[in-house]
Amino acid sequence: MSDQWIYTIVFLCWLAAAAAFVLGLHLMNSPATARRGNQLSAAGMTLAVVVTFLWLLTPGNFVRPGGMGVTAIAIILIGFVLGGGFGLYLARSVAMTAMPQLVSLFNAVGGGAAALVAIDDYVRIVGTPDLSPSTAIFVVLGAVIGSVTFSGSLIAGGKLQGIVPGKPITFPGSRLVTALTAIIAVAGLIVLVLAAAGTIALSTEIQLAILGLVVLSGLVFGITLVLPIGGADMPVVISLLNSFTGTAAAMAGFVINNPVLIISGALVGASGAILTKLMADAMNRSIVNIMVGGFGTGDAAAGAGAGGVEGGSIREVSLDDAAIQLAYAQKVIIVPGYGLAVAQAQHACRELADLLEQRGVEVSYAIHPVAGRMPGHMNVLLAEANVPYPQLKEMDEINPEFERADVALVVGANDVTNPAARSNPSSPIYGMPILDVDHSRSIIVMKRSMRPGYAGIDNELYTNPKTGMLFADAKDGLTQLVAAVKQL
Amino acid sequence: MSTELLNALAIFLLAILVGFEVISKVPATLHTPLMSGANSIHGIVMVGAMLIAAAADNWFSYLLAFIAMFFGAANVVGGYVVTDRMLQMFRRREPAKAPAETASAAAGAGASGAGEGK
Question: Which residues in chain A are closer than 8 Å to B113, comparing Cβ atoms?
Answer without folding.
Answer: 30-32
